[in-house]
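STRUCTURE:
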């Protein structure tokens, strides 16, 4: 019984902790956004859609890389299972 309660406590605290960290981080970024923007774009300049392109490409590349890595792991498991069955 005690192990079950401790396991539930662990899972709930990790999930809620992740939520709190995410909320605090995004809130802090919203607060300092004007200062960061003024630092990135000096007086007379304004951000353009092409300024976000490197960030978009980096995030897209990370997602694609993760999906390929998962596919490779899945293929290795299937190959191992097939050779073990043969």
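SEQUENCE:
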């Amino acid at each position: 019984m005690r192990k079950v309660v401790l396991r539930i406590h662990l899972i709930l605290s990790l999930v809620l902790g992740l939520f709190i960290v995410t909320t605090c981080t995004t809130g802090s970024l919203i607060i300092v956004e004007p200062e960061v923007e003024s630092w990135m774009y000096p007086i007379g300049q304004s951000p353009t859609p092409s300024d976000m392109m490197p960030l978009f490409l980096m995030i897209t590349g990370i997602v694609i890389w993760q999906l390929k890595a998962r596919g490779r792991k899945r293929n290795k498991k299937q190959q191992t299972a097939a050779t073990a069955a043969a």
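REMARK: The chain has two domains: 1-47, 49-86.
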